[in-house]
Amino acid sequence: MSLLSSLKKRSTLDAAIKQVAQARKSEAGRAEQLYKSAYQGFASVIADNLLFSEALYNWGFALLHEARSRPVAEAIEIYEDAISKFSFCLLTAPNYLGAAIDGGVAFMELARISQDDGKAGLYGLAEDFFEKACRIQNGSAAYNLACIRALRGDEEACLRYLQQARDSGSLPDPVNILQDEDMDNVKQTAWFVEFIEALKARPEPVREKLVDAEINAEPSFKLKKTEDFDYYS
């Protein structure tokens, strides 16, 4: 980092710290604006630091997997911690595909173990992450979005996202789809059965696809459920 760049970041950091101090003494509306501005300042100071972003992502990834082995009360806190890491990663590296997908996965898994009255909101937040992932790389989280639509009973949108996942090469194989509990609401419908049969009849089976994100020098991400990457819900 050049001296000029370092001085600029120092100035931005100092300004953000002052905004926090002002926010603590301000009324709600003004405080909210100051906090938001400060957060943007903090994020800009650590932006473009690939090592920092990668550490945040992998920290969140580890928390995501740890949560799956914990009792519900502990798991909820760990999922929330993972989500904060993925969210922070996206602040520092807005095009970090893995953080967008796994952040959505964390919200979905959190929804499954949460009270019924909170599930809809959590699935909505998961959807926000998956839509961001698709903006970063077209179709990368289309299957996840299909799962959310299936859970809501939105059959038309579910089929549309399944087709998008198929066309982008990010669709699991038919066996995995049929085993996915998120699809239970649509598995008996005629269109779903037809979709699966068409997949089975394809000359080449739907296979795991490695997608070269080429974003911020990040590694390629496996867009299919595997032991190493669980991007699908």
UniProtKB/TrEMBL annotation:
<dbReference type="InterPro" id="IPR011990">
    <property type="entry name" value="TPR-like_helical_dom_sf"/>
</dbReference>
<dbReference type="Pfam" id="PF06552">
    <property type="entry name" value="TOM20_plant"/>
</dbReference>
<protein>
    <recommendedName>
        <fullName>Tetratrico peptide repeat group 5 domain-containing protein</fullName>
    </recommendedName>
</protein>
